[in-house]
């Protein structure tokens, strides 16, 4: 089957933000056969891929240097099972609002509270869209997807979709793998509204003096939405830009209430956690109408960032960062974006570049340890990777607190751990500020997890001392894994005899503490833009590459640029080392920022 790939396609008109951006390659699919052909193409194999639905929850940060696949699967069907149950099926590209209106016209109840939401049927399970007391996950029966890995069509049950608040398997391990073809919903044959728990709808019911019809609720929901939310046909936006943070009650009482006693909250299904309306926090932090260029905090619903007409993605992100920082400053909680921020760029901040003792070494008077140059002050090794709106920390060094303060790290999505030696994990307890909004995710090998359970046993007991860090440990194998939509490929290397991991994210790889890289793992380090690799010193070491060995490896792997890290003082002063290294290789230093387009 011949697939047509268009070049340089404008994405602005395909998104509700309406911000100009182009896709290097673009194609559409109408069914599983076309997706199978796409999955077999060179264009698919050679490019980063993004699957576009209704474009109502996405912000392209600049041109997309990859392949955009756009659903065109249409069609609606209805099956009456019995007097209580009906199933409706919608193609992924069906317009969501029209689909909901159709179910109401067909005399089926359930989706009425979700009226007027921009976007497509296919996006509804991805984000687990929710409004006015209903989350779509509770009404989804099955999701039919195409698996781009096995090239089979599969049916996922609601349980298998792992629905959470604005979350699902499609945003995590299934991202880029399961492409939604059709969604089926279990509805109720009735004209009576089903869920009137949301305050304003409860009032609507009592004002009417009877249970409203589905059509009446749909009309009321659309009226409420129009009074608060900008119409994307007129003012570009992607609905709520941030998620409402879910925080531990303990954190709310101890930290947030101490900063401001009147912060509202809602209960959640978990008795230990509550949900805070982020719109309230943003408004009360004085940010209503705050704008940069053409982007503004929408005055009648501060959770929305609107495009006043000529906003760039950079304007939107500057507003978002300012909002995040001000809310954190005033209320102590970090907001996380709900909108899918898409870019192929990666920003790496090297947080620490020293070996286990750091430089200067305590009690050492050598010229390197006495150097005044900031580039000779090396804290223990760690790096921060920012891509697609996600911030990942590689290793949590004992100097993490200092690194976080000087780099102004206010938001972290997860940590990836190379191995359990103290200089790579000693700062784990200092991740506490990032555990406030729920458990903090850590990705690590099984042996490392077991080691940390012993060392940090106080974090994993049945009954926990309040305030200890809350971790969600994800054990990784030697196959790629997804962290909030970012694909991470583990690279198995040997640290002396100890098997440890490095990580590849896009065209960036970070390998530290290696002495041997097995042949098959070298394959995973080909065609890199940037490689960060350890080079301890000139003298031989049983567990670390020397600088010479690191340079040999770089010669073999041929990344476009390489940086050395994990230095001890015997590597010499930064300035002198820089002069000795060949073109394309530099010594990393604390605070170095590497941008990969
Ligand atoms: N609030 C303010 N100022 C604001 C915005 C809200 O004080 O600028 C207060 C409101 O007065 C209210 C509370 O915050 O007391 C909650 O506001 P609202 O009911 O409007 O809902 P929300 O929590 O801000 C969520 C969804 C919306 C959904 C509404 C209604 C998220 C991220 N957003 O917003 O979904 O329409 O509830 O159910 O959960 C979307 O996801 O794009 C979206 C629009």
Short description:
By secondary structure, the chain is α/β, with parallel strands linked by helices. The protein has 16 helices and 35 strands. The protein starts with 5 loop residues before the first strand and ends with a strand.
Overview of this structure, please?
With 597 residues, the chain is an alpha/beta fold. 23% of the residues lie in helices and 28% in strands. It is built from 16 helices and 35 strands. It has a seven-stranded mixed β-sheet with strand order 27-26-25-24-23-22-35. Strands 28-29-30-31-32-33-34 form a seven-stranded mixed β-sheet. Strands 6, 7, 8, 11, 12 and 13 form a six-stranded antiparallel β-sheet that branches. The longest helix has 19 residues, at 313-331. It is globular. Uridine-diphosphate-2(N-acetylglucosaminyl) butyric acid (EPU) binds at residues 131-132, 228-229, 239-240, 243-244, 264, 277, 279-280, 283, 301-303, 338.
| Main β-sheet, spatial strand arrangement | 27-26-25-24-23-22-35
- Specify Rg, calculated over alpha carbons: 26 Å
SSE-based structural type:
alpha/beta
Number of helices: 16
Low-confidence blocks of residues: none
Overall 3D shape: globular
Q: Give the termini distance in whole angstroms.
A: 33 Å
Average pLDDT, all residues: 95
Q: Largest sheet at a glance?
A: 7 strands, mixed
Q: Strand percentage, roughly?
A: 25-35%
* Helix percent band: 10-25%
Bound molecules: uridine-diphosphate-2(N-acetylglucosaminyl) butyric acid
